[in-house]
Every structure is written in C-alpha cells, then in structure tokens.
Amino acid sequence: MQQLLQVSAFFDGETLHKNCVVELLDGRVIHTEEIQGHHPKAEQIQGLMAPGLIDVQVNGGGGVLLNVAPSIDTLEAMFNAHAQFGTTAMLPTLITDDVEVMEQTADVISAALADKLPGIIGVHFEGPHLSVPKKGVHNASFIRPITEREMAVFCRQDLGNVIVTLAPETVSPDDISRLVAAGVHVCLGHSNADFDTVTKALNAGATGFTHLFNAMSAFQSREPGMVGAALLDDNSWCGVIVDGHHVHYDALKLAIKAKSAGKIMLVTDAMSPVGSDEDSFDLLGARVLRNGDRLNATTGELAGSCLDMARAVKNTIEKLQQPVTEALRMASLYPAQFLHQDKTLGHLKVGAAADFVIFDDDFNVTQTWVNGARLF
Length: 376
Fold this sequence. Notes:
Blueprint: E1 2-11, E2 16-25, E3 28-34, E4 43-51, E5 53-58, E6 60-61, E7 64-65, H1 72-83, E8 87-95, H2 99-114, E9 122-126, H3 148-154, E10 161-166, H4 173-181, E11 185-188, H5 195-203, E12 208-209, H6 225-232, E13 237-240, H7 249-258, E14 264-266, E15 280-283, E16 286-291, E17 294-297, H8 309-318, H9 324-331, H10 333-338, E18 356-359, E19 365-370, E20 373-374
Parallel strand pairs: 1-4, 5-8, 8-9, 9-10, 10-11, 11-12, 12-13, 13-14
Antiparallel strand pairs: 1-2, 2-3, 4-18, 6-7, 15-16, 16-17, 18-19, 19-20
Helix pairs in contact: 5-6, 8-9
C-alpha cells in the first residue's frame, strides 16, 4: 500500500529537514523531499518524524516480565507498552535463570519471529554466566559456568539478533569466539574482570558492554578495569541507562567525550512497570519496589528501571546537553549499527523500513509506526 505523509520536521538519521514529504510503499520508505507549502495529497502531521527507537535491553513492560512468563502474550504486552514511547524494535531480555526457562524463551522468540510479531527482532540473554560479586539483582543460585546446553540455546539460528551478556572471567576467550562465530553479539557486563581479561575478550570478538559503569569493575589509576577497557576500545558499543539513578549525568558526559563517536547507545533495562501503574513486583525471589521513577529490590540493589526510550532521548538532550540529532542517533542508528541492521533500521532514507516515531516539541511521543502501520 502506498502512503504519502507530510511532516513539519523530519530527521532521516543523518540530517534534520523541515517541511518534508515522506512516501511509503509496502512498509518501506521510497522517497523523501523537502517542499514549500502543503502537498494536497499528503496526510499532514505536526511534529518531528524520526527513526523508530531500538532498545536492545528490555526485561519487561505493561505489567509483565519475560522471566516470569516467556510467552507470545508477554512479548505482545511488552512491545505494546514500549511502543507508546517510540520503541519500534526491541530485544526482549531474559536475565539469569534456569536453562529450561532459557530454552522456553528461545522457542517463544523463534515463534514470534516466524509469525512476524511487530517489534520483536531477537533476544538478549543477560546471564547466566556472570560474576557473583557483580550480580546486582540477579539470583546467584542460577549463576553458573557455560555448558553445551546453554551454548546450544545461544547459537540457535532462528532467534534473529542474539545478544549474550557475560562476565569474561567466567567464560573463556575460545567460548566467546565460538559464540561470535555463530552470529551472537557478545556483550561484557556483570563482571569484576581486570583490564587484561576484558581486553582478551574483546580480542576474541566481544563487541559490547552492558549498562556501562553499572555492575562492572571500575576505572582506577593502576587498574583501568572494565570501565577503562570499554571507554578505550574504539570498536565496541556501550549501552547506557540515562535515568539519573544508574549513572551520574556528569559521568555519562565524560563517557561520551572519551568513547569513540557513534559507540554509545541508549537502553532502558526496563522492568514490568513501564506502561503500567504497577508499583511492586517479584523478580526471581527478590521483591522490587517502585519509588517514583526508580526501582530497588528490598535488599537495596537497583533492579532495572522504569525508563522508556522517549524519556532516555529527552534526558540525553536536557541532562547530557547532546544535540537532538545525536540523542536520536544514540537511540536508533547506533543500536542498529551494533546489531548490523543499519541497512534498513536506524534511519529513514530510501529503502529503510517504515519504522518511525512522531515527537512533539517536548519530545513526547504522539505517534508510533512499524512497517508502515500506525500503532499509536
């Protein structure tokens, strides 16, 4: 189906345009053009059209958690909750759990992809091969060495984009290389590894760091740790949670200055309260309480976030003083590049998927479109 839209502002992933006509056909962008006045055949839209936001770390939303109920219904509820806030593609995230739950989740993700469930483009396994001293809210009873059974789950070829977060002191460089050879995006996190161990993991093919600064060995003068390795490496991406609770805003400003351009991406690490009025929930034996926009386990640890991607973009603009265009790239283009999906995702140039969001002047989401269809 052919569609013609005219927007007052248009960001194609590289350049910000004014008064632009965007032509869609069968879920793709086929033409964009700045014009004077109104196009008589175009649907008029006030606001900024930007590439759809891509969240590679989403534990839950809409009152449900992937770990609690790995099912198609859960995936639909999670995506519908986040799509209200501009997310058009996401990797549902399973935190450290039993291998049977991992296998069940993989089967559900495979079915969702086969059925072309909107917004689901893969899966993120955050654990279970982590460091107990840096486990955060993860249940230590499930943290374990990697075996062939977990490897078989990670290396399935029917799961779309697969991210595995692991601690490099618990998984050998050979196993990291094996994962990478199978197409897995290996991220490092929940780790107390020293700089040399992290460097060996990067050399083995790891390309990402999960929630930079959080649950990882800190930068010190005589031991740069995982934070130092992450900021020094030019070829890896760092996810950051810009909610004002996980990381001090000035620490994030410093990270942006230090890290290679285009290598910091926004994530939410969102839990079930996003898109719902839930104020507490259970997470693998831990009770988590919501206090405003902050989530803490009753034992004190931060337990994911209440953040959505639109708020992450707004915070990046207002609190980190990043240009609008860069904040949008951090939420769309850079995650797409990390996943090697930037031919069709993360921008709105000709040939791109017609996944986009409409923002008002205050960066509230007024519309979300996926594959050329308006969802909200």
